[in-house]
Amino acid sequence: MPVIARFYGIIVKMYFSQSEHGTPHFHAIYGEFNAVFSIESLEMMEGDLSGRAQLLVKEWAGIYQKELLKMWTRQEFKQLPGLE
After folding, report:
1. pTM over 0.85
2. Alpha helices in 1-84 (DSSP H)
3. Is residue 38 domain-resident?
4. pLDDT for 9-36, tens place per residue?
5. Structural domain tally of the chain?
């Protein structure tokens, strides 16, 4: 699963497999904690990230939501900047 972005210790990844199915989403990893976020709603669909980490991921995803959806649709990897 390629790394899309890194910021504040959070790693964002997305599968690029033709067998991928379901709601457009990405994965966020922070230490031993993992979560899956919807690209469309930016809500955490499953996982155990802390509230603070969730807020950072949602802020980042809001900035790059169009790019994330384009990557999901085209199945093309592109590395995105993190939060500053």
Report:
1. yes
2. 51-63, 65-74
3. yes
4. 999 999 866 555 678 999 999 999 999 9
5. 1
